[in-house]
Structures are given as C-alpha cells and as structure tokens.
Amino acid sequence: MFSGSFPFRSAPSPSTQPTAAAANRSPPSPPKKITFKYALERIRVNDRFFAGINVFKVTPNGKLEPALFTLSRDRFILSVLPRKLERMSSNSGGGASLLRPTILRSRIKSANSTGGDSLDGTSSIDTGVFSGASMNFGMDTVNVGSIDRIQSGQNTLKFELARQRERKQGLSPRNVGGIPLLDESRCFSLIFRGAKTLDLMVDEGGDREEILYVLTAIVKEYGRAKLKVGNEVQLLRYVWNDVDRDNSNTINEKEMGELLNRINFQIKEKNHSAVYQKFAKTLGLDKATRKRGLTFEQCVTLLHKTKRDTWQVKPVTQLFYDMFGQFMNNNKVRKKVSATSFLNRFLITVQGEDDKTMDDVMKLFASLHDLELAHVANHVTEKDYISIDHFEAYLLSRSNDIFDPQREKYRKEDMSRPLSEYWINSSHNTYLTGDQLTSRSSVEMYTKALYRGCRCVELDIWDGGKDDFGNPIPIVYHGHTMTSKILFEDIIKSFQVFLMLHPGTYPLILSLENHCSLPFQEVMAAQLKSILGKNLYIPDEQSLLGELPSPAQLRGMVVLKGRRPIGATDDYDTDDDAAADDMTDQQSVRTERTSVSSRKLATSVKIAPELAKLTLFHGTKFRSWDESIETPTYHMHSFSESRVKAFSKSPQSYRWVEYNQRHLSRAFPSGKRVDSSNYSPILAWSTGCQMVALNYQTPDEPLRINDGRFRENGEKGYVLKPSSLMMKGKVEPSALLLEVKILSGSCLPKPGGLSSGDCIDPYVIVSLFDCHEGRETTTSQNTNVVMNNGFSPIWNFEDSYHFQVQNAAVAVMQFTVWDKNSSPKSDEFIASASVPISCMRQGIRSVQLFDANNTRSGAFDFASLLVLVRFEYSQAEL
Question: Which terms are listed as keywords in the entry (predicted)?
C-alpha cells in the first residue's frame, strides 16, 4: 500500500487483444443490444423532423432569417439550414405575390451528416450560394450533448434585439421580404454549452409544442443513457459526427487523424497511415475492411488502446496493484478484484468511507458491470468482482468526485433558519454584458444568473422617457455611462417566467438601486405587483419584528431590498457610495463612525410609499457596530470590497460577525473595477457576510470560487454558514494540513470546447484561497506541462503539493487546467473545479471539470482529473 511519498513502481499492462470475430463486426445496423451510439433512436420522431421544419432563425443582430430546422436520423445532431423565400405569381391575377419557401441544398452538406457544434454554433460552410444580404448566414449545428436547457418564449439577447428592430421599423402585418413579426407563442431557444443560444420562431402553422416535446424527450434520454457508458464511449459519440465526414458510419485512415486531433491526442500526420494499418491488423481486419474503415465499436477500442499503450506508468494501474497486489493467488497478473478487497482495502482504508457496507459495494459493482466499455476491456462476469477497467471507470466517475455528495445534496431540512444564517449567491450590476462604461445591458443576463444559481440580483433604476400615453417608463442601466438601457418591466417579466418554470425556487432578492423620481417609483410599484402577483412578498408590520424569515417561508417569492420610509426621507446606503467608501475606509474603520466628508454624501431621497410598502430589506449607512447591532433585523448594510478589507483587519472585526448573525450585509466590487473584474469572496464570507456580489459577466477566478461554494446544498443559492460564524465572541478558525497530488487527466477538451485547432499542452494549477487574521491568502502550485495530449495526460505524480489551511470552514481549493502557449500571458483556460475544503473528500478522487460558464455540457461532460488528497486529521474536527 502507498504511504509517505506515495511511490509507484513499474508494472506490466494487462493484455487487451480482441477476438477476430469481435474485430470484424459489421457497423451499419444497430446491434441487438442497444448501445450508446444508437441510444436515441428509441425516441419516436415524426419524419418531418428529418425532412425539415420551416422556422425563422434570429441572428446575432436581431434579424429574422428563413431557415429549416432538422434532426439527424440518429437524433444526436440538431441543424438549422438556410432557406430562401421565392416569389411566385398570385392566382388572383393581381399584382400581389406569394412567398414560397425553398431549401438551398446546393453545396450544403445533408443535415443527417452534419458536424458537431463549433464555438459559435455555426459550421464553416460556403455561403456564396446565398442571394441577398439576408442570406449570408451558414448552417448551425448543435450536438444534443451540448444542450443545457430548452426554453420557450423570447428570453434571450437575440430576441431582445429582434424586438428592438421591430419597434424601430414600426408595426405592420408583414415586414420587408416576407419576414413575419415576432410571435412569442411560436418562439423558443436552445441554450447550449453554458452561454450560447440558438433562437428560433416556428413558421405560421407550425407546432412549437411538438418540437419542444421531442427535444425534451431526446435530451432526457441522452442524460439517462450517458450514465451507462464509459468516458471513452461518450467522448467518441460526441465527436463522431465531426469526423465521419462522408457519413459512411465508419472512420477511414484520413478521418482517424482528424479523430485523434479532435480528442487532443497528437500523432504526426506522416505516421497516420502506419498507425491506422497497424491497429487494423491487430484487429484482424482484411484489406477490404481496412479500406472501408473502422466501426464505432472498433474506434472505441482504438481510444482504449491509445490510453493504455503508453511508455508511461499509468497511475490507475499502479494504484490497482499497490492496493490489491500485482499477482493473484495463482501467480497470474491481477486483472480483477473482489468486493471484499474493494471495500476493506480501498473504500475504508484509502478513501476513508467508513460508512460503506457490502450492500453498497454490490450495488456499485452491478452498475459497473452494466457500463458500456471497449470490447477489449477486461470484462469480468462474476458479480462480486470487477476488472481494472471497471476500477478506472469508477475512479473517474461522478460517484467518486472529490466534492462530498452529502454536502452537494439538497437538504430541505436545512432551509428553515433565518436568512441571516446563510451565504446567498449574489451578483453585481447583473444587467451588464461587459464593462461598466460602454457595454450592453440585457435582460438575458438576469436569466443566465438565475440559472447559474444566483438568488440576489441588482437593478440600477433610473427615470426613462414616457410612452404614447404619457406614462413614465423606468429603465435600468449603469447611470452616467454609455451602457445601453433596458426596461425595468422586461426584467420583472423575466423573473416571473423563471418562477413559473421553477415554482420551488428559494427567494429571489432584488437589490434595487433606486434613482427614480416619485412618479417613476409609483410605476415600478405597480409593475411589480401586476407582473409578479402572488409571487411578490409584501411584508406587514408584524413580519418586521424579531428574526428574519427563512428561505423556506419565502419559497417561490420575490423579495425587495431598497428603502422603507423612516419619516419623509432617509439616510440611505447605496452602491453609488463606492468611490467615497474607497477614499474614507481607513478612517471610518479606525473610528467606527462616519467622517464629516462621508456624511455629506448621504443624500436625502424621497421614497414613494407604494414602493416602500413592498420592500423588506432597508439599506442604512454604517456609523458604528454598537448602533448597527441594535437596529431592527430588516435593516442591512452594503460595503465596497475595500471596506470589507478594512473592517476585516480591524480589532473589532468580530463585531461584524456578530452583526451578521441577525442582520444581512452585502459586499460589492470597488467602483474602480471598470472592466467588471472580480474580487475574492473569501474574506467577506469569513465575516459572515451573506451577499457577496460578483460580476457574473466575467468568468474569472473569483467567480469560479463562488461557483464552488454554491455547488453545496443542491445549487439552490443558499448555503448555511458554518457554526463558527454563529457563535458569540471571538472564535479561532480551524486549521488543516493538506497534501495534494495531481495524477492524470481524462478527455480534456480544447479551449472553449472548440472542435478544431492544435492538440493542447495541458498543465494544472492548484490554488488554495484562504484568509488569516483578516487578510486574504492565496497559495498556488503548478504541475509540469504534458505536450500534445489532452486525451490521457499523465503528470509527474511523484510531486506533492502541501497546503496549510488557516480557515478550513471558509477556504476553497481550485483546480484549473490551462493550455500552455509560447508566453504565460497567452496560456488559455480550459476548465476548472472549485471545492470548499469543508466539502472535500480524501483519498484517490476524480475532479469533475467545468467550463467557464460553470457547466459540464458538450465537450466538458466527460473531462476530469484524477488526484490524491490527504488530510492531516479528520474533517470531523472542523
């Protein structure tokens, strides 16, 4: 067994020769047992989905273009092909003409053999055949495995732009070119790979609901079927349509080179033929069969052998032999392990899973035996044994994730505490798509934030114009900047749509930065009530007394943070004081009272009674902790990041912790962050600050830390704070010594999930984000670079990385995979995972990797790392 420096010793690889009969299996028709390659064919689909359904596609600039929506025969690829509208004479004999849709098939590949989705969802086809400026778009293809969700209606940026175009052009039965007006009842969107959208409107007479029903069934079946296959099978199925370019259902010699590049395993082009022929011969394929190409099953064998036939010692192989012995009792090389040994020598001894029983192991073994693996894998038929390939499949699976499933699981019983006892997933300037000065504002950003788990969003509301009837129009944008403006009403509608689809959502908190005059505030109140209806939480005087309500009490509700009337005017706290906070932080913390210059910034702003009555959380200026702690619990403070740092270093920092035990605090980025970059949320969390607002439009390191924190409790957006933050007086945080080894990677994609480009040169950065004595601390260590191999990289696993965790209840560890380029500044992000130390499991674990949008769809669905983690002492002591 391993210990100390965790030494590995060289070991022979088990033989993996297939039989000749298995090698010559014929591909075209599905085998009797439904495999993953044919898994979606069980979904019954009307033939018109294969022939094509007339739709209109919304382009990035908001134009509607005629298109044809098709589904490949295997149901794995959705395509949108361009079509044009040809004019023909009317039978009436008048001057009017009718529009007839025609499909532009010339020089366009059939929808039934389209490639996978590219970075922008558009394949690189020649668009020269399209006539007219409106016909200059290509074919969009989306792999079913990339789809994150399907939503009806018009809730994306492209639809926003389309509505704006219609308003500018003016309403008419039909616009120029026969393009109809938007009809929400016929619109829907595919959201794929975390952030990309394919936005469509079914042509008049089409059945949107049938399309949504079929797509939902296909996505659901894909999610079910993928659980029963190994990573190599799932990866090959995902890239199959990219490389089987002639739609022959086989991979020939040339396509094999494309396949290996697609999965990030480089073989020099001059060696492609030799490698192909050698592999085909080992399968026993005759010359004619080799020329025809490799079947899907044979390509799975190719990937299997590519991973195993390496000069390097495989960590999984060595682990297997170290734990269970290299030789069995008959002196043969070990190829299997019993349930008893698996439980005692691995789960209990190495993984520290003392609660596991033999029943648990037998259920796990049954699921492993049911996995679809390569035919040449070491298959073991005895139900109480598994092979080394089964063992590897388990190690890399979600079941063995480093993130403790008990901490990740939603716990309904934990949702009945006052809101002050939770960390709440929060965003800043939620409406922005980019920087704070010139970027676009979009309603879609609210929807994206909500689906990412955010439950506290921000709206900066200002007086807009007036409609044709003279009614005020409140708008949202970053005031006094060149950012674009959107309607307050549209944002509120997006919340209502989300709640209709997800009625069990825990409370959505709207942080209203209200800059409006009274007439506009009155309209805001009316719109909130009319749109949200029963989903709007309206506090009464009794509810303002005592403890704050719990997430369970406010489930399905929208809660407002803003101003409640205290007399005619109020000394109100707003994020607009960020610059002033930055200038006066040190003085305000040292004296714990507001300086004269800071007091002058307190603006007396009138609040409309209609809006005040709807508001629960009342933002107030900070003067001293003594004064703040005595205020009603619905009073709260907002602090810029610089004030968070200053308060945390103060000898009175424990008073902020005490304040946060019954009240709420919100932290937000410095006003100096015009690029919308983020700050680390760790320090604010360590004070018990509930709402640590980040710029969700910026996929940087701090946002990934936030993603890891709120992966806990089923990604509901509410995580109970640790008990140490709910104790009175000063509490010393728990420390921890941690050892980490990065062993290997599996199925790492290209940056952004691209289907083309050079093979990656991956390396891993392991970072600990922590805090100590009121200061943030970050410790990072790098692995070596593995050249030209993202499919199965093996790093120097003799390297150990040691971390001293100072505040184990708050600290987060981040594993980030990068692609090495010529300059460190040009290295490209590939994927990452953030794991709170309190949620981390020891032992040999997989790290399930996420893309920049915190999703595991598409090429990231099977990307993972294999690591070893050791604690100096049990986490039960935390």
Answer: Calcium, Hydrolase, Lipid degradation, Lipid metabolism, Transducer
